[in-house]
Amino acid sequence: MNKHKNDRCAWPGNDPLMIRYHDEEWGVPLHDDRKLFEFMVLDAFQAGLSWSIILKKRENFREALSNFQPELIARYDENKIQNLLQNPGIIRNRLKLKATVANAQQFLKIQKEFGDFDRYIWQFTAGKTKVNRWEKSEDIPASTMESDAMSRNLKKRGFKFVGSTICYAFMQAAGMVNDHLASCFRYKELIDIN
Questions:
Q1: What's the CA gap between 154 and 80, in Å, rounded?
Q2: Domains (range + CATH), the chain
Q3: How confident is the model at residue 193 (pLDDT cuts 50, 70, 90)?
């Protein structure tokens, strides 16, 4: 998609990777469990960093973390964590890596309990995209009642790095909310596909 930059949200700037992510992925309703887990992992690693850094390292993460397959990551041991801490292509943060393993284990439990993770996570928006109508970036909240509820429930289940702000970023990325500005070409496109 080659839209004029004035027709999209401002946050991608002029970065081609960010523009492609904005134009093709961000806010698209996501129902694939492996992809939902990928977004959850990447949003946790983003804590304290810019999304641009995460996107630039995304392929390295994919390679290092078994293509974000929770059933493989759930079995990572201390040796695997040590190896990952030597990998300059990813964010080398011990707490976040250990959280990724713990989150994979909890993710699998939720899949078993609900049949899939998709059914569990979308309950926080009653199974459909919440469409907002923001005129300016400053209007977009960092968290909401829904992300608060998601965060509380995930923490209760043993997930790490799932504060309300991280949960809201996940909800935006996974299309649980449409937070494209009303003036952005993707805003209407995403309403039309819902």
A1: 25
A2: 29-193 (1.10.340.30)
A3: confident
